[in-house]
Amino acid sequence: MRRTAVVAILAGGALLAMLPLLRLPAFYESILYLALHWIVLATSWNILSGYSGYFSFGHGAFFGAGVYATAVLAGKFDWPFLATLPVAAAVATALGLALGAVVFRVRAVRGELFALLTLAVTFVLATIVLNTSIDGGPGVYLSAVPVPRIAPTQPGTFYLLALAAAVLALLAAYLVQHSKLGVGLFAIHDDEDAAEVMGVPTFRYKLAALAISCALAGLAGGVHAVFISYVTTGEVFSITVPLTVVLMSVLGGTRHWAGPAVGATVITALLYAFTKGDLALTGKATTGAVLIAAILFMPQGIVPRLLQRSPIPRRATARPNAVAAATSRAPAIATPSGAVLLRATGVAKSFAGVQALAGVDIEVRSGEILGLIGPNGSGKSTFINVVSGHYPTSAGSIEFDGREIAGLPAHRIARSGIARTYQIPRPFAHLSVRDNVAAAAMFGGAALSTARARIEAEHWLEFTGLAAKADVLPDALNLHQRKFLELARALASRPRLVLLDEVLCGLNPSEIDEAVGLIRRIRDAGSTVIFVEHVMRAVLALSDRIVVLNHGLLLAEGPAAQVLQRPDVMTAYLGTMHAARA
Amino acid sequence: MNPNSFWRSAVAAMSLFALAATAQAQAPVRIGSTLALTGPLSATAQIHKLVGEIYVEQLNKRGGLLGRPVEWIVKDDQSKPDLARTLYEQLITADKVDLLMGPYATGAILSAMGVAQRYDKVLVHHTMGVPSLAKYDMQFPAWSLGADPGNTVPNTVFSALAAAGKTPKTVAIVTSKFPSIHFMSLGAREVAKKLGVQEVLFLEWEFGNRDFGPIAARVKDAKPDFVWVGAIGLDGNLLLDAMKKIDYSPPLHFHLYPAPGPMVQSADANGALSVTIFEDHPPFNTPPVAAEFTKTFRERATKANLPETAVDTQAAASFTAWQILEAGVVATKSLDDKAIAAWLKKNKVPTIQGVLRFDGPNNFGDDLMRVKQVQNGRWVVVFPPDVAAPGVKLVTK
Amino acid sequence: MTWPSWNLLAQSALSGLFVGSLYGLIGLGLGLSWGLLRTINLAHFAFTFAAAYLCYQLSTQGGFDPLLTLLVIAPLFFVVGAALHWVMTRFEVSPFNSLLLTFGLTAIIEAGIQAIWSADFRRLESSYGQQKFKVGDLFVPVPELITLVMSAGLALALWAVLRHTDLGKSMRAAAQDAPIAAAFGVNQRALGLLLAGTCAALAGVAGVCLSLSFTLAPSQIYTWIGVVFATVMMGGLGTALGPLIAGVVIGVSEALTMAVTAPSWAPIVSFTLLIALLLLRPGKT
């Protein structure tokens, strides 16, 4: 399946590369150059911003970096034009990586703050270029730069260069979308924190997407510098590039690799269609009207709308039979039963003065189901969050299978074989149920390839009874189903330790029974389970041992029936008066 | 042969020839160009559209070019140099126009120049602000800046001041970093230094700056005798506004390329100096061609609701460009670009600016920039004396 | 570099304060609709300029006092803004799609402005333009003062409404979680229309203030987008005082830079400051 699209892109590119041989009037090569140029810019923007949701308003900065890299090298240092292009891409990438390395670590800078920051970077870069000898004011004159004769005509050469860049961009967008990187980016788009805890190396992936995006933008910039042959900061760093790439991508569809290209072609065609002198103003107004109509009637973008209506069946997802799937599953790595799998020592966590955990020592033995109970606010969910890496610890150590995991980034913790569910389900809203589970299989401890992960997902959907809903989006599920989706996701990564956070809350009695059976089967298959619960009959039915937390401290620990009879435990739950009456 | 049939054949043949000749004569001469009809540059480009329309109309009334009517194909480059380049390629390779006319402003002209060079087309242009970048030998400027305006224009300005007995002792040079402005202001610094005028302030702002308060305050603080404002479009007005707000009126101030309309309408601009190649008063508008043009332009500009209806540098340069092109075609009796270019290089062309030559560096001839001043709500040329408006002198406060 | 006089610094800072308050005034409606209505309204800039041109036209042709034109302009744009919002809700336009839609609208409005008033520069010469006060040694020009007063006044008024009135609280609730707010009886439809109309009316006010101080040209619509977006994002979406404060910070820091060194370096100071603030301030989570 992947091969056909790649082959199609390459074949299309090869076919279009023959165009200069037709010896058409040079103007066609130039106008196609412009369309291809915008395809590269829009597609490259989308690889970061469309896929991951990190809306960048600074694509102009990376484009401009490429433009000026070529302008300075070719215009002032007489480098050959083609030799400047890799440097242009490299300069833009370096700028992007430097920016990303700092910004992506700061949790608070997401959404519109990231957009603002990238916009600010553009202004800063423009000012630096304007005030230093990179440009300094007069602009850089490039008409004298010799353009190699790749095609019979000069516009033809630019056309071929842009075509090569566009093929690169489309290939990159396609391959990213269909790779683990793409799944990870889409997961980041929907819920970055959940993705990180599930095992997606979010920092690395965001940087990768940004690097690819910048490299392509820089390349496009380098080529464009010599096309326009006179480069000024006012033109290069205007609001046009950052704004237009967003419009093109949104118009075409941001979740599809071909979306921005379609949007770019449509908008370039529109802008060009009205260049006759007497149509200038009417043309502008008509372009505006067309854009409005397009977005009102195609809110997902053009490409998704076209795909919806196409009679060609969507990429058929593999439907292997469950037996094959079951047997393809390797047995979970089993630590000898009874050995300590997780050891938390003196674990503390405070949030700006509120001490959620005040030094807790808990041991979890391999193969057991440990119930973690306590009144509200006792620190149970915080404990889960800290073990899974959702929050860093304030103090203490956590050893998992002998290795220290406190302080590791959450995705590394997930990789080592720990999975969790969320009390309020946090599925990835734009991924199908199957893809939600497959993502966990790709990024968790199992670390399967994309293809095998989808097969693995089928198994877990069967296991949790969601097979019929595999292709729907999570918001079509009811609460019970969403809870089971959380479970399926947690299990798909073949964890050695599963952390269940109030998975039964909100379920009716028969659903609770079903869930209890499921949890038992999970343990029987080889995973260790810590589960946080309020539903006491489930705690009694499932737990081998329970641990009681109160005000962030360990209150009691031992077999369920005994612990629940203890007066201090009852006091903690019910308050003194009631406990006295009991 | 039967004499009747001979004559019949002869008449038939002659009719055919006449028909063919007429058809040939009727095929219009197509001249193509782009203008920034939309986008940030459209404020000034609309003047060029109007002038082009007027010229082509009048040209056709006079019999067109080489006995054929002239058709002007103008496209909107939306103020984008990359689109300008593409459209010029379209004009040449797809629309196959006979001749080219230049677009508006330096960036687009450079784009067009590259295209013209690849196809060996002659390019007459009217608004090239950086002569040193015009390296194509078949391009011809209608805006007579001279080959070294960074040097000659400031010299003219200071000469004008000297002639009025007002050589300043101190000068403040404040300028935008817009390419066609910046190098001129740097030239002004050099000229001031050579003339022994002390530079008390030098400031540069980025094109698009909105807040001129601090700059105005710094100029006021520096107390210069003379302020050189390297401004284009709105900047000069914004600076004057800002100066007025802090109660500062420079004793003498010069603006490089202000938007003429707003400047003349603003009360604080009285006495502002600038440069021009043409103004709508004698002696510029006395010759018949100029007189007719200025009259027609005024009428049409008023009808088009343009705020400024007098011919000035932009309109005059535009008109001149058409005059140059026509002269080349008429003199060589052809539409052959190489022949036209060769002729223009070796000959002088009379235009409403004066007689122009193109044999200097980069085909730029004389610097014909005159110094003008806002007096009583009008721009009037004050220097050199032979072209100054009758009875007008440079006034200072 | 000679250190400038206190008077120069103070006058420059004042100048920055004024231009910053205009950024804040333009940004006020933009930020509120972005934060509370989830609409990224690029057409806000087109509304501002359309209002500026209308004010210019009514003042120069009709002889009205520019501030009086607000009586016509504010209601007119209120209706326009509400209508636009109605379209957005009817088609359930998402935030990014609203960017595209309003861009289209901006192109149409820009073309309209150019068709009516030509692309040339227009400057409103009003009686306010001639007036100024002197506070100590500092000059306070009246048009700028009007802008500052409008900006601060409207920001404070809106802040008070959003903070302390039921109406405001309902709006904020609806923005945070519409279905729940509806369950509590908040009429989201009506509130949305009211808010959208108000934001557009604010654009109208901004336009009138703009026309008092600046020269107008249709393409100028785009030159304000960058800095006002920065103002809004920096001040916080959906807040009333945020854009004003952010605008003033940007304006003053740029003005002080211009007073002290080469003015062409000005953007670097304000935006580096902004970047530093974003990276260093304590995280929201």
Structural summary, described in words:
The complex is a heterotrimer of chains A (582), B (397) and C (285). Chain A has two domains: 239 residues, no CATH class; 243 residues, 3-Layer(aba) Sandwich (Rossmann fold). In chain A, strand 11 and strand 12 form a beta hairpin. Chain A is an alpha/beta fold and 582 residues long. Chain B is elongated and about 100 Å long. The longest helix of chain B has 24 residues. In chain B, the strands form four sheets. A five-stranded parallel β-sheet of chain B has the order 2-1-3-4-5, sandwiched between helices. With 397 residues, chain B is an alpha/beta fold. Chain C has 285 residues and is mainly α. Chain C has one domain. Helix content of chain C is 72%, strand content 3%. Chain C is built from eleven helices and two strands, in the order ααααββααααααα. A two-stranded antiparallel sheet of chain C has the order 1-2. Chain C is globular. The mean pLDDT of chain C is 89. The chains are: A alpha/beta (582), B alpha/beta (397), C mainly alpha (285). Chains in contact: A-B, A-C, B-C. The interface between A and C is large, with 46 and 47 residues.
